Every structure is written in structure tokens, then in C-alpha cells.
Structures
1.
Amino acid sequence: MAEWVNASVKQVTHWTDSLFSITLNAPITPFTAGQFAKLALEIDGERVQRAYSYVNAPSDENLEFYLVTVPEGKLSPRLHALQPGQPVIITKEAAGFFVLDEIPDCTTLWMLATGTAIGPYLSILQEGKGLARFEHIVLVHAARYAQDLSYLPLMQQLQQRYNGQLRIQTVVSREETAGSLTGRIPKLIESGELEAAVGLPMTAEHSHIMLCGNPQMVRDTQQLLKETRGMRKHLKRKPGHMTSEHYW
Ligand SMILES: Cc1cc2nc3c(=O)[nH]c(=O)nc-3n(C[C@H](O)[C@H](O)[C@H](O)COP(=O)(O)OP(=O)(O)OC[C@H]3O[C@@H](n4cnc5c(N)ncnc54)[C@H](O)[C@@H]3O)c2cc1C
Ligand SMILES: NC(=O)c1ccc[n+]([C@@H]2O[C@H](COP(=O)([O-])OP(=O)(O)OC[C@H]3O[C@@H](n4cnc5c(N)ncnc54)[C@H](OP(=O)(O)O)[C@@H]3O)[C@@H](O)[C@H]2O)c1
């Protein structure tokens, strides 16, 4: 049984009508960058709990989560309505294996995300530990519209901090906008546009691909990389090239 602790909402940032970030303070035990917690509220006498990835570095006491309001969703619209000072409950221990310790050595580590799934990568990159073994890191954030790229300023700051080791690329699917590729991640890999824009190849020999977010994006990209690049899922007992986390 998970142990729950009380958290207090410190801040809520509304990026768009549906995208928001919550900052909490709570006495959790230390987590590893890339992991998630469960947040819960009592709704009609029932505890409704869902998983949310930490965005902050583990060393930061402000616990940050990046969310989208799912229309008709049970919990996310309630979290969207929270105000500073209100209570939430959170699992004391984080969970999940979408962490750097699970990633084998490679020349180029690709971090691919749709929507709010940029979170775990931001945690990993803000913490900044265990990354020196990769010559290149590529952070790709795919969203519907340019205004949904809420963490672009942080991505740009990180790019500067990593001084050439980190490249960032945004992808927008429902409009054309300067500075972003247009379309969906798998199509942009298939056409070669993503690699051309980033300036690095995605090969089984030199790359590892982390995939997070929309489960159909994860499946479509894995299928494409399997068929066209000879990549396979990474397992402890059989090392491969792709590590993923599905958000639903
Ligand atoms: C490991 C893990 C980490 C997660 N981290 C985050 C996170 O950092 N931020 C975040 O916003 N969500 C995250 N999620 C999703 C989150 O746990 C909830 O599923 C989401 O907030 C919807 O809950 P709900 O009660 O509002 O919707 P529900 O009433 O549970 O309805 C769920 C339905 O909404 C859709 N859905 C669920 N999540 C999403 C989503 N993110 N985008 C689009 N459609 C969705 C699916 O069709 C799903 O069947 C994560 C999920 C997992 C498994
Ligand atoms: N984002 C918003 O502004 C917004 C506003 C209101 C409500 N919502 C709700 O929030 C939920 C999540 O929306 P979201 O925009 O965060 O997440 P999302 O629907 O997963 O979309 C994020 C990105 O992933 C892409 N994508 C979807 N399926 C894919 C696939 N199979 N392969 C590759 N890429 C794929 C989308 O492209 P496509 O655009 O081509 O699908 C989009 O660029 C939805 O329920 C939505 O109705 C979102």
C-alpha cells in the first residue's frame, strides 16, 4: 500500500486554457529524476489518484508537475481548479523506471515527448547528473500548437547550460510556426526532417531513444524505428535502443 502525505499547493501557473503547472511542498522521500508521484483528491467521498511526473530536479524542494486538463477527466479538471494554499495528497515514495540508470551508454541520447510528457526530461536535465557519458543529447517537444510549448524558455536555458552537448527541437502539429518543425514525430523521423533539423543521425549503432507521452506516438515511433532503423526495445536482459513511458 502506498504511503500518502499531505501537500500544500504553493503555486499554480496557467500556461493556456488547459495546460498548467502546479508547485507543491510536501515531506516526500527523495526521488530519482524521471520518476512520477501519484496525486490524489477526495472527490465525492472517494480518493481519486493519478500518476504525474516530477518536472523539478530532485534537489529542488518545490515539487513541480506539468498537467493538461483532460475534458471529462475525473481528476485533472479538479487539479486545474486548485488555488495556492489548498491541500492535495501525494505519494511519499516516487515510482517508475524512466530514469537514466536504465539507459545504456550511447553517443546520442534522444528524448522525445508529446504534450505534458516533457516533464521527466526536464527533471533529468535540470538535475544534470549522469549525463556526461552521452556525447549528444537531443530534447524534442511535440505539441499541437506553438502556444502549448510552455517550457520552451526552460529548454533554451538548459541548452545554454549544456554548452553544445544538448540540442533542442520543437514540433508543432496543427499550425506552421517559425522555429518548429511541422507535423508528428514518427513522420518527421521517416522523412529525415527531424535528424536534418537537429544535425544528428538516429542510428541503432550510436543512439538510444527515450519516448514519453501519447501511447500511440510511442507505439508508432517504436514500430517505425524497428522497421527502418533495426532498433528494438531495451530490456535489462537484452539490451536494445528504445525506452518508453506511456501516459495513458
Ligand atoms: C507514469 C505516468 C505519468 C504521468 N504523468 C503525467 C503528467 O506529468 N502530466 C499529465 O498531465 N498527465 C500525466 N499522466 C496522466 C495522468 O495520470 C492522468 O491519466 C490524466 O491526468 C487524466 O486523468 P483524469 O482523471 O483527468 O482522466 P480520466 O477520467 O482518468 O480519463 C482518462 C482518459 O483521458 C485520456 N488521457 C489521460 N491522460 C492524458 C493526457 N496526459 N493527455 C491526453 N489524454 C489523456 C485517456 O484517453 C484516458 O483514457 C501520467 C500517467 C502515467 C501513467
Ligand atoms: N493541447 C491543448 O491545447 C488542449 C486544449 C484543450 C484540451 N486538450 C485536451 O488535453 C488532452 C491532451 O492533449 P495534448 O495536446 O496535451 O496531447 P496529445 O493529444 O497527445 O497531443 C500532443 C502532440 O502529440 C501528437 N500526437 C498525437 N498522436 C500521435 C501519434 N500517434 N504519433 C505522433 N504524434 C502524435 C499530437 O499531434 P496531432 O495534433 O496531430 O494529434 C500533438 O502534436 C486531450 O484530451 C485534449 O482534448 C488539449
2.
Amino acid sequence: MTSDALSKGSPWPLPSGEPVLRLEAVRKTYGSAVVLRDVALEVPAHSVTALIGASGSGKSTLLRCANLLEDVDDGAIFLDGEEITDPRIDQDAVRRRIGVVFQAYNLFPHMTVLDNITLAPRRVHKVPRDRAETEARELLDRLGLAGRAGEYPDRLSGGQQQRVAIARAVATRPRLLLLDEVTAALDPELVGEVLAVIRDLKDEGMTMVIATHEMAFARDVADQVCFLDAGVILERGTADRVFGAPAEQRTRDFLSRLTEAGRL
Ligand SMILES: Nc1ncnc2c1ncn2[C@@H]1O[C@H](COP(=O)(O)OP(=O)(O)OP(=O)(O)O)[C@@H](O)[C@H]1O
Ligand SMILES: [Mg+2]
């Protein structure tokens, strides 16, 4: 991808050797249920990590902990080497460095596409309106949404809305982008356009953690695949290794169920 809004001003600093995100022995419980158990994870700069696993295995919870939407019960999480689970941390400042997109796009319905995208850059990051809008239009161009800036979300298709949600998340030039089942609510014919946008972000060097049921996409885009089973990262490796030669029986079972269902 050529020069564009996102590459101006060095949005993603060069890797320092320190992983962008690191989880150490993270434990998360809801009441008596242990939802994440001894989870360790390293996400290097400019890499894509896919979280796969059955429903309820803890993928969303892991992402919510990484974004400080949930407190962890034990262990620690680091962003660029800084412990963000330290109670003295400024949580809002941490969240400003992390972009998040969930399954339901959650665009502000009373705001135009342009205002949805420029809200955080202007209000939170104090980017002047002119610059925020110029950059937002460039971003929309790149995401195939040129000419949609003045539209309200309910006039867009699900795939278009989800692309606006991704534009909104990257408009603040986050250090890390967390994507949780961003295609799950979309009609099949709209999934591809959203996945293409994510692939472009990868090509530009965006560091991402993606919870997904789109196995073909995970295999294609992920540098690292983690298979979660009942709150444990049971297996991790390159996409080719985890999909091609899973070491754990439970991973094999999970993948063969998907294959039988025609989803792999
Ligand atoms: N706020 C909550 N209160 C209590 N239990 C919760 C809460 N959020 C999640 N859980 C439980 O934690 C477990 C992990 O849920 P999580 O949403 O992380 O799974 P998931 O892997 O993202 O599943 P899916 O593929 O369906 O999105 C589940 O058993 C779920 O019921
Ligand atoms: Mg989930």
C-alpha cells in the first residue's frame, strides 16, 4: 500500500524488540468460573495473532482484559513493556493506545460517518478538525467508502458499517488493534470486504489480535495462532503448524468439527 493517511507521522513506531502486548500468567474469574487460566501471550510489533477456539473458550474475555475493560484476578499485562494492570496506571491513557472493534459495530447513529471517525481524534487526541477530516476522508477512500463521509450509519450496509467502525478504530493510530468477531454479524457476501481491509492493515504493519471463527482467514493472515480451550491457550504456533499439524487432540477435534461442518 502506498503513502496514505495512516503512514503519515510514523503511526506505528519501529519494533523495539519488546512485544507490543504481553500477557503473563493471566487469570480471570467470574464468580466461581475460571474463564482465563494462566494465559501467557506475546504479540510482537507488526504481527497478527489469531485467537481461535470454541464458543465460551475465553477469546473475547482475553481481548477485554487486554483493553482493560475487565480487571484480571491474577497475572499481568504489558503494553510496550509497561504494565497496564498496575493499579496506578492511567487506564484512559492506555485505552487511547489501543483500537477495538467488536462484532456489533456500535457506530453513533446520530452522527455522520465523518463525525464517527473524527470524534476520538478531535476530542481525545486534540487533532484539529481540518486535519482530522482530511485524514478521515483519506481513510474512507482506502477502505472503499469514498463519498460516504456525509452518510448516516443506517444508510450503509453491514459490511460498510463495519468498515467505518474499523476506520474509526484506526483513525487514532493505535499501537494495537483488537478485533473481536468483526465479521460474525455480516451476511456472507459482505465478509470478504471486511477481511480485505484487515489484510491491508496487516500489510501496513498494524499489530493486531483477532478473535475469529473465520479459519481460512486466520490461516491466511495470522503470524501466530492460539487455540483456546476452556480458558487455557492449549496450543500456539504458526498458522501452518496449528492448522496443518495440530499437536493437541483437542485442537484436532476442534478443527475436524469445523471441517465436518464445511467451515474449514
Ligand atoms: N460478564 C460475564 N459474567 C459471567 N460470565 C462471563 C461474562 N463474560 C463471559 N463470561 C463467561 O466466560 C466464558 C468465556 O466467554 P468469552 O465470551 O470470552 O468466550 P468466547 O471464546 O469469546 O466465545 P464466543 O466464540 O462465543 O464469542 C464463557 O463461559 C462465558 O459464559
Ligand atoms: Mg467472543
